């Protein structure tokens, strides 16, 4: 109804006229202007990843460890104490020059940028997850504008890297646990007892569980070392086979030379 129709209606009766006088004037509708409402969604942080390795110490000994990839750093963690294997084994991605894949199976070096505040120029390790480690180093360094180089020694087995799909199925985290040890949250044997069982019985079973876990953890370490030792022995046996083959060929050449010399003499 427009303003003229309202005035005609109000004139027809006194109450309507009074009501029209008391009615508040309509407010002018504000002019709406479009506003910029674009949402800037930041890049999601790369999730952490833990990978089982054998850390090679300065004396060339190997110890089981976890290579822990965080948002800005990678660390070598002792799975038993959840602390650094060596106090300097925590590296910023900007301090990493790249990864060198060794010709020896499952051996690799994380090369560090010269001149940075690192007591060592490289971090040595062994792992069956060498491809995933190299891939994570490549991708995470790129996130901080550091082009880490992945290089292969002559004779080393090559693989693809620099693609998130390579790490699409990451190895499960084993920090503070082992493949042979009860994981956090698993049912204890004592919890399966009836409510009538004594507390002493429950405590004894818990003690047995802890002892079995320690034995299992030790067996896990022994199994890992045994597997790596077997691989090294296989490699050495192959080298011995090649040396024997070359020695047989050399012996045959010497024998043929002796025959020719005898013919010349006689």
What is the CA–CA distance across the termini? 138 Å
The pLDDT mean sits at 78
Q: Which percent band covers the strand fraction?
A: 15-25%
* Rg (CA only): 37 Å
Oligomer: single chain
Global outline: flat
Low-confidence stretches: 173-186
Number of helices: 4
Instruction: Write the element-wise H/E pattern from the N-terminal end onward.
Output: HHEEEEEEEEHEH
Class based on secondary structure composition and strand pairing: alpha+beta
Sketch the major β-sheet: 9 strands, mixed
Report the strand count.
9
The portion of residues assigned to helices is 25-40%
Describe the structure.
This protein has 266 residues and is α+β, with helices and mostly antiparallel strands. The chain contains 4 helices and 9 strands, in the order H-H-E-E-E-E-E-E-E-E-H-E-H. Strands 1, 2, 3, 4, 5, 6, 7, 8 and 9 form a 9-stranded mixed sheet that branches. The longest helix has 67 residues, at 199-265. The chain is flat.
């Amino acid at each position: 109804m427009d303003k003229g129709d309202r005035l005609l209606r109000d004139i027809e009766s006194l109450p309507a006229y009074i009501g029209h006088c008391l009615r508040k004037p309509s407010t002018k509708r504000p002019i709406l202007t479009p506003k910029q409402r674009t949402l800037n969604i930041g890049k999601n942080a790369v999730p952490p990843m833990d990978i089982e390795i054998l850390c090679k110490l300065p004396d060339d000994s190997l110890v089981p460890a976890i290579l822990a990839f965080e948002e800005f750093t990678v660390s070598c963690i002792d799975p038993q104490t959840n602390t650094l294997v060596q106090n300097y084994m925590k590296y910023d991605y900007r301090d990493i020059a790249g990864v060198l894949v060794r010709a020896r199976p499952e051996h690799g070096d994380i090369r560090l940028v010269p001149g940075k505040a690192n007591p060592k120029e490289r971090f040595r390790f062994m792992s069956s997850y060498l491809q995933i480690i190299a891939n994570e180093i490549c991708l995470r360094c790129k996130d901080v504008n550091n082009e880490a180089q992945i290089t292969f020694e002559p004779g080393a087995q090559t693989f693809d890297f620099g693609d998130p799909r390579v790490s699409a199925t990451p190895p499960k985290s084993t920090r503070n646990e082992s493949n042979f040890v009860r994981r956090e949250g698993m049912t204890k044997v004592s919890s399966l007892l009836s409510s009538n069982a004594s507390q002493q019985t429950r405590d004894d079973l818990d003690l047995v569980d802890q002892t079995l876990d320690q034995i299992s953890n030790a067996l896990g370490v022994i199994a890992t070392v045994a597997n790596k030792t077997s691989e090294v022995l296989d490699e050495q046996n192959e080298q011995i086979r090649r040396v024997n083959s070359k020695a047989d060929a050399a012996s045959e050449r010497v024998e043929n030379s002796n025959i020719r010399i005898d013919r010349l003499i006689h």
